[in-house]
Design brief:
Structural class: mainly alpha
Strand content: under 5%
Helix content: over 70%
Largest sheet: none
Distance between the termini: 65 Å
């Protein structure tokens, strides 16, 4: 019995760890999409603050799912519509499934950074749910630029690029949690706002990197370098203006990273 207790204890620990990891992944899904879980599964997950904190490593996995949906809509729409319409429909699908969560962060950040001079005013404007001129202009330009760039790319490249960009851009956003502090006392991202451990960062980073490798490892290296430079700039900017990051800062980082990858792909073509 004593001999058997060791493997049994290990098995219980593995089952508990696996259960926690599944809860983390499902929490990430619910947090970053508008797609609800079945009632029974939702009760099992529980959505505790610890689960949200642990779910950060799976945000790029959510990006894979969101990008895959956009890619599927794009490929299906290409059967009946020109590429410009197919891209627009795929963008609508990703906006619908995420509730424009990251786009909202982009708009809030442009309003705040464009319309305020002090840290306090920047945080106040960022917290305001209303959209201003800076945010509206930035949002329209970002969406138009995505649409035009993806339409200009070869159709065979677009579908996988959508998946890779959605995953890698979320890896870039989450990486800010490695070195920056969350600056609000309260906020939707507050339960999430724990310093990211190296293990969790490795999982998130590898998810994004793996999705970028196809079709050319040289493209992946260029993309990684671009994301690292963008990440360094944004981290410095957030640190200087706010002393850290907010949830909107993560949304802005995701959007700019995704757009940067699309632009790089077009320049690479």
């Amino acid at each position: 019995m004593l001999i058997a207790s060791g493997p049994m204890l290990l098995l219980r620990r593995l089952r508990k760890r696996l259960g926690n990891e599944i809860r983390f992944a499902l929490t990430a899904w619910v947090y970053f999409t508008r797609v609800p879980l079945p009632a029974g599964l939702s009760r099992w997950v529980g959505y505790e603050a610890d689960y949200l904190s642990g779910s950060a490593r799976y945000f790029p996995v959510v990006g894979v799912a969101v990008g895959a949906l956009g890619a599927a809509v794009y490929l299906l729409a290409l059967r009946r519509f020109p590429p410009s319409v197919a891209v627009l429909l795929s963008m609508a699908a990703t906006l619908l499934i995420t509730g424009a969560f990251h786009e909202d962060g982009l708009a809030d950040c442009f309003d705040a950074f464009g319309g305020a001079y002090t840290r306090e005013d920047t945080l106040r404007i960022m917290h305001d749910s209303r959209i201003g001129a800076f945010g509206a202009i930035a949002l329209v330009l970002a969406l138009l630029l995505k649409w035009q760039v993806l339409t200009a790319l070869p159709s065979a490249r677009v579908a996988w690029l959508m998946i890779g960009a959605h995953a890698a851009s979320r890896s870039t956003a989450i990486s800010l949690m490695l070195s920056l502090d969350y600056v609000r006392d309260q906020g939707r991202a507050k339960p999430l706002a724990q310093r990211l451990g190296l293990g969790a960062a490795a999982v998130a980073g590898l998810t994004g990197l793996v999705c970028l490798i196809w079709p050319d490892w040289r493209w992946a290296c260029g993309a990684l370098l671009l994301l690292l430079l963008l990440r360094a700039f944004l981290a410095h900017w957030f640190k200087r203006r706010l002393g850290g990051y907010t949830g909107d800062c993560l949304g802005l980082t995701q959007q700019l990273s995704e757009l940067a990858l699309y632009l790089l792909a077009l320049a690479w073509t």
